[in-house]
């Protein structure tokens, strides 16, 4: 790379050699070596190291020169006398250094970028100013940060790069430009973290290397597929092989949007990975990211992938990730490091983690974004994407596909409408979808008929809890899925305890996982009687198989997911999933739940409920009931290039209502962990472990428990219910008032 120095053009190699041979005028970092001696990293060395990494990251989307410029300027503020005095004195490098008053430094590089690179500086200043604190709202940036003066001791005679500003013309859609800002920010902050780590903790830095190639991944996958060849040639296995063959053919296509619509039991998970690995090799993609709505599916999917590719190639990143269970200490540490920036061959994560990072303003969230570039993204159970945020989510995917080389695969048995233009009930409510999505499975395969193992028996007449409990009692083995925690508890209480299991989010994650495993074990061992009452947490992706399923009235997509737990392996003739109403007890909650059910009820009674065209009709009915596809008005905050409110938008873009309060419950060894917490204080690993014993409750239930002196505040935001009698072995946390409502996203 050639830059301007005075009136001459010189190479960065010359500049780097000069930096490495000169005495440091400014210090960026100080560490202790093994003998306790202090060592320093010069600010010049650090800035160049960051610049080189940021250039490498941003080159993936042809903006390496911008990345390099960001890296060179980001820490110019460390030349401040105050910062140099601060770092020397606090580290013990120079105890005689003068005191300091203001050690902040990020604003200096932002001011220099504005001065040196105007008129394109608007693409750089926020990234530099916020590389520690986060991207700012425009008004804060302009009225606070950029009104400061450059301190007189700062050397403003810096190399000016020749930037390819013409590339900015590509981002002519306002809904795409804020993603570019955030992507450049990602390149800078990850480069800054990594170069700092390279100096301060070289052992950690070295452990990040993991370069298993996609070709090697393909060979591992082929071993698994070869093992499938010995499976019996049943109709279901024949169909699964057809699906895999279609995925291999479709993988040859260039980067774009794809859908894989396969009914439950069609081998969707393996087939989607077959497509992803081959598509990545064909198009030079560097990693595969799988985003899933529920942690219960993530754990199951990750286990399948680890059995194929090995633990060292699959990263789980979600709220319940527990790396302490990994026996290999080095691998355990590598996995923890990889969650910071997703530099791993396969990443399995949640929709919340993925999309909230895409709209975040924080360095810790945004570090990973540049590693989504030039990757393959599988969005599993795509019908669960929240309609309240559908427009900004789809806009983000379109931007990442168009500008950052992302290929996207939507997988589900219940494919939503994500293409074209759809109008809601409000004339101003229009959903602008993706121009074209390629469906991998040809319509002539007629998979919904080939894999038909269940029929629906829909009865919208109201029932009481006792009436439904009586019906369930007629079956030896039956699964019943309801919409709320309260409904689950009411039905469970009306059935014999010895043959019935309960599942809801009133149970902590460890308890839920244990109960699901127990259900699987009982079914595998041929237990004669088993009734399970559950909320939607068991509805999608959990591999269980019941001869009879009951599903409380809901949207067609949810009903079909429930039906996927019925005769899943096709070992019986056509079985039945019964759809029932509890309207005699109370109506469905207004909002999404009621709208989804009404959209389903608007369809013809003689519809083929499993046919893709029926699902399309259902989503048309659902969408036309919407009054918004952008509940928090992201377009207002982010789509004006002159006024982008990054911090405000990040606070508003929350896919799950987080007003619930997490409390740690007394189950298994949770109180031992609480004792450790009180003694040692919070740490990453300890809080992750305690997350396995946490239940989210709403404010008024929290208040009732607190009034009864049942809640102890350990630290700010960390609460414990130590009383063992408040946590029931069968149903989880009990409260003094009525049971909490189950949310749709669990």
**Biggest sheet statistics:** 7 strands, parallel
Portion of residues in beta strands equals 5-15%
Helical stretch count?
29
Identify the strand order in the major beta sheet.
7-8-6-9-10-5-13
Rounded to an integer, what's the Rg over CA atoms?
Answer: 28 Å
Shape: globular
The percentage helix is 40-55%
Low-pLDDT windows of residues: 2-8, 737-746
Number of DSSP-assigned strands = 25
How much is the average pLDDT? Answer: 89
Question: Separation of termini?
Answer: 50 Å
By secondary-structure content and strand pairing, the structural class works out as alpha/beta
Description of the molecule:
The chain is α/β, with parallel strands linked by helices and about 750 residues long. The chain is about 40% helix and about 15% strand. It contains 29 helices and 25 strands. A seven-stranded parallel β-sheet has the order 7-8-6-9-10-5-13, sandwiched between helices. Strands 14-19-18-15-17-16 form a six-stranded parallel β-sheet. Strands 21-20-23-22 form a four-stranded mixed β-sheet. Helix 2 crosses helix 8, helix 3 (about 65-75) packs across helix 8 and helix 27 runs antiparallel to helix 28. The radius of gyration is 28 Å and the shape is globular. It starts with a strand and ends in a 13-residue tail after the last strand. Residues about 1-10 and about 735-745 have low confidence and may be disordered.
